[in-house]
Amino acid sequence: MDPSATPVGHKIYVRGQPFDMVLRPGLQHFLQMAVSNYIVFLYTMGDEDYTQAALRVIDPDGRIFRGGICCWRQSESRLRKTLKRAVCERRMTLVVDDSIDVWADDLSNLCLTRRFVGDKLDDGLQMLSGQLSSLHRAYFASAPSEGWSFEAAASGTPRAAPSVQSVLYEQRGKLLAGCTIALTGVVTDQREDSLEQQPLCILIKQYGGELTLSVDAATHLVARRKEGWQKSPKINRALQRQQAGESGFYVVWDHWLLDTLATWQKQVEESYAVRLDDDRGDSPPPPSFFSQQLSGITKAHVASSDFENAAALNAAAESKTDFVPPRKRHREDVADFVPLPLVH
Fold it and tell me: pTM score, two decimals?
């Protein structure tokens, strides 16, 4: 930020440079809930200087992140996070993040949250608190009353400890049951041999959905709005199916899928419908579930998609030997955030 500007949130300094750090509404309540139920880790793609500056605001007494702090170092990639860096038992670990791609190795542990873009009335952490509390209760409700251990879990005996993965499946594993999803503009590689190996596609299947490359075989075409989207062959074919009166088939913007994955509630497709006569042209997609809760408060659109892999941004940033950004994302185009904690 400009050194003379008035911060919206907290002014912090990283290597002498000022940053405006805006805390997500409900952050302290969320962290208190997390600490009362979980051992909390912080796993961030911010570097050590930035992380320490942020922690002086978020956790000045060092009481929250008792599990440990993993921050980015120049010897490591900014494209991948892994539970192997955290000293934790994977069967008992929940991952909280707003990014899917970086957790490709641990998607069955991921609790996706919506990206914070500065809304003062954002209720994302309130929703997340409810989800984590529910998961905590469900996990221990399914545990044997006595005698269970990780040794038993490894041997597969009836007294084995439950797993976070199985509890997550019970909570949301059938949410997309009956949905066969085709994608356009949402993932970079649409080859048949690799489609289902992409992180977003894996997560769709973990929610009970199926994938297809054929618009004609789909129940949903999920599209990302890009320049010239009105000429997309897939979108036009999908709209032809709708005009022919096919019931049970939907053409929706990708925020329908993101909001469904993040809220654990299948969203109403009509609120996200794609229409060729949309007079907004190439403007941002319709409001997401979260922004619809803001009583008319306008939400700034995030220029890059929530599903977009940040590889190009990271590669460009890391190629500059004279400057390494202290955090993964830049504010110029994308509303930045302090990554949420890894909890178990």
Answer: 0.80
